[in-house]
Amino acid sequence: MKSMKNGNIFILLECESVSKQTRRLAKKRHTLNDVTIVTKSYNLTTLPLYLCKTKKVWYTEKSKNLKGKHIMLIRHFRYKLPAFLIASALLLTVLSGCNPIADTSSSAPSSNNSGNLDQSDTAANSSAEAASKTSSLPFHSSSSSKAQSYSGGTDGTVDLFAAGDNIYHDSVINSGRTANGFDFTQYYEYLANDIKNADIALVNQESPLGGDSLGVGGYPNFNSPQELGDNLVSLGFDVISQANNHMLDKGAKGITGTIRFWKKYSQVALIGINESQSDRNRTRTIERNGVKIAFLAYTYGTNGYKVPSGQDYLINLIDRAAIKKDVERAKGEADAVVVSMHWGVEYSTTTSSTQTSLAQYLADLGVDLVIGHHPHVIQRVNWVTGSGGNKTLVYYSLGNFLSSQEKVPRMLGAVANVRFVKKSGTTSITQAKITPVVTHFEYDGSQKENYQKKDFKIYKLSEYTESLASHHGIKHYDSPFSVSALKSLAKNVLKDWYTEAKE
Questions:
Q1: Domain range list for the chain
Q2: Per DSSP, what are the bridge partners of residue 414?
Q3: β-strand 239-241 against 200-205: which pairing, if any?
Q4: pLDDT tens digit string along 81-139?
Q5: Does the model's pTM come out above 0.85?
Q6: What is the CATH number of domain 115-497?
Q7: What is the maximum span of the chain, computed from C-alpha positions, in angstroms?
């Protein structure tokens, strides 16, 4: 987004529970009681107004002309605020002369589902900790090529690589600009071998690829260059999950344009969005080495944007009855079922009660693996025992794969490696691990406000150095930042699943 001129101010009011994380968010912000005020300078024409309360959602969608006016977007209300308090906050903010902040976090509340308004479920985390201690298994990467045929009869082994939120803010887009368009492959060069060597690689693409006609840009209404999709395929990604809260940022046209783009890659399994009801009912499967795996994807909501009437099939929302039907169909068509879940509380390393409940539900259905996205920070991993005595492996959140968000914990993401083994007609997960990764970017003070971040790279935490950390651009937005601090965070969240050994 280009900055507005003539002093026009876009104001974001956030009301959240005052956790340690929330208090850390107060930097560069002006706080009034439990209200956080952020000023931004965006060239927007319309934006919805959201009024939300934890567990219950009051939602109004009114077009507001932002041009030439001081406008506020009200997000995440813990308490319903009186009009005079909101007016006072607005006046206070205008008088304070706040500086605009670029590339802010990704999501607004949704009327579809309260998943991002859940409270942290500390008890559930504690009870699951003991189970997770026996779950960290050694993993050995497969040296086989994806194109290589398997001659082992009905038995086989499949190594799955899964990545977190691939979210493209304006600075991420701009840094990949070339003379002829865009090229983002350099961002992923230090993980390229891991992606290519996996039998199947999955990523959550946290934005539509709707086409240039819809306008390319980042927050708050994302639409990434389609060259990004080309890059993901060239890197070796086979499964693209697009069931996330940003998929209606450009309306139904954003989804249909994204589907149209992915059609040119018939080898790619696009999950979570659909062009018709019959497409919605079709199970996406990939077979490698004699093992067929089904992939499903769901999201808690779409940032308050309603799915067009008569087009409920466009995006897979979290609905237990629909999930049950999908899983039952998938189990009849494949040897194993993997589900991508866009869920949880943004920026919380603690899983929510909704996540815990849904994980148990998926285990009861017989799902083999759950890959979680949306919080933008890492969360725990554990095995969940289903009602049939089966074990379901759950990665609650892999955090960011790549982003330019401006808080230290959001620089730490993770990738999952899971081995499926089919023997005598039975398929199970025999080995698994989680590998923390770091989003690195440089800071260029010579560039205008929205484009001060450049040269994005993803590193494994085990290969990231204090020298690199010393000139990470995040230090211009948040601190402290160091390798030791990232390792401490990873160990605190992942417990016995965390290892400092290099791959």
A1: 10-96, 115-497
A2: 436
A3: parallel
A4: 444 444 444 443 333 333 323 333 333 333 333 333 344 444 445 444 434 333 334 34
A5: no
A6: 3.60.21.10
A7: 73
